[in-house]
Amino acid sequence: MRPLRRLVPGLLAGTLVLAGSATALAGDEPAARPRPGSAGIGDPYFPQDGNGGIDVRSYDVDIAYDFDRGRLEGRTRLRVRAIHDLSRFNLDLLLPVQQVRVAGRPARWTRPDRHELSIRPARPVLAGDVVTVVVRYAGRPGRIRWQGEQNWLADPGEVVAMNQPHMAPWWFPANDHPRDKAHVDVSVTVPADKQVVGNGRLVSRRVHGRQATTRWRAAEPMAPYLAFFAAGRFQVDHGVHHGLPWYVAVSRRIPQPERSRAMDLMRRTSDVVRWTEQQLGPYPFSATGGLTTSLEPGFALENQTRPTYPVMSGRGALATVVHEVAHQWFGDSVAVRGWRDIWINEGAATFMEARYAEAHGGMKAQRWMEGTHALLADHDDFWAVPVDDPGAERIFSEPVYLRGGMAFQALRTRIGERNFRTLLRTWLADREGGHGSGAELEQLAAEVSGESLGGFFDAWLRAPRPPARTAANGFA
Length: 476
Prior knowledge:
Among the domains are: 2-20 and 336-473, Orthogonal Bundle (Neutral Protease, domain 2), CATH 1.10.390; 186-220 and 224-331, Zincin-like (2-Layer Sandwich). Helices cover 26% and strands 26% of the residues. The protein is an alpha+beta fold. Helix 3 packs across helix 4, helix 5 (365-376) packs across helix 7 and helix 8 (417-430) packs across helix 9 (438-449). The protein has helices spanning 258-267, 269-280, 315-327, 342-359, 365-376, 380-383, 398-415, 417-430, 438-449, 454-462; strands at 2-3, 54-66, 71-82, 89-92, 97-102, 105-106, 108-110, 116-120, 130-139, 153-155, 158-160, 183-191, 195-198, 201-208, 211-217, 229-232, 234-241, 244-251, 288-292, 299-300, 308-309, 335-336, 435-436. The chain is built from ten helices and 23 strands. A hairpin with a 4-residue loop joins strand 2 (54-66) and strand 3.
């Protein structure tokens, strides 16, 4: 994610910018008798996110959306593997439920609260078994507010399911945590005069009367919040660049000449992907692209294979594309172990903005880091945020992005270009399709460099003051 509003504005290109499958889940040790899966995956920032006892292998989401009424009807088929013998298990869903079946049999279900769907199969599910779960549901997602979030983005002409850290429960039942990735196949039925864009590659579009059903399928597993769809009237372009299929779309409701500029920007995605591959290693997915919506989310988001953007202008627009493309590696391919680790994703993507500017004739990334550090030296509130554990309410705060981004550049200087490149590529290659934590990244940095880096990471990530301008802290 890249918020459009930054604490200290600027442009990286010429001025200072302030700019898999699940592992064993919490409480899932084997037991002699079937027992319930826990109601959360074990992330202290969001205790109800995800669910224990299950590993979702795939989602087959089939929805119909009524623009006039703002009503969504859905049928989602999940393939779920039991981690231990299960008497019941939970899914995360905010819409009203109509019916649940497990392994082809009707299942009892309850709603302990509006976020949790608790399912009791007709028979216990044994450890290691993979069962099919079918949930039917319907409701008005635009009316749903949960824990201060009202994430549905729509009006009578366009809808885009995009948000972070939560989005899936507004439109399909999920094990809603980045730790549990799964394959996602989405079919969306809307009026035939509208188009649908989603993750991965377009499979089919079938017109039936005044309605049309469009199917998108992603080849690689993803975290539930990265699954998205958009429906509306779009200008579309697509092709293949160096063997990688790309598909971009821009809302036709955006007036000219802004629409043409947005399309030109979306078409640059493949070139940015190609450059990023040279820095981080092979692109981890089988398709790429982007979508510009006419709606106003206030941020861009790294939906897997196809980030979504608001209308943007100026030099910062390309920097935002660089940021979201970098997230395809940091955040999408390698997810966070827990939401406290978000500084890795946002710090790396912010650093890649600076690295891109440097590589394309702009400011040197080291100058950006040192200048931003100096500009913020007297901002005590900025340094008071420990970015490796900022708290749930601050995971998208400015320090997470900027302090995290400066930390990456400072580490580049501290351990040297060769070691830094090895660190990034090793992190991404070893954890491709999985996840990682900040502690694991710190350990890998020490192993790759052969240096003791505890003091460095304390200064950049945890100390409630700006790092001293020393060589040990990555200053030239």
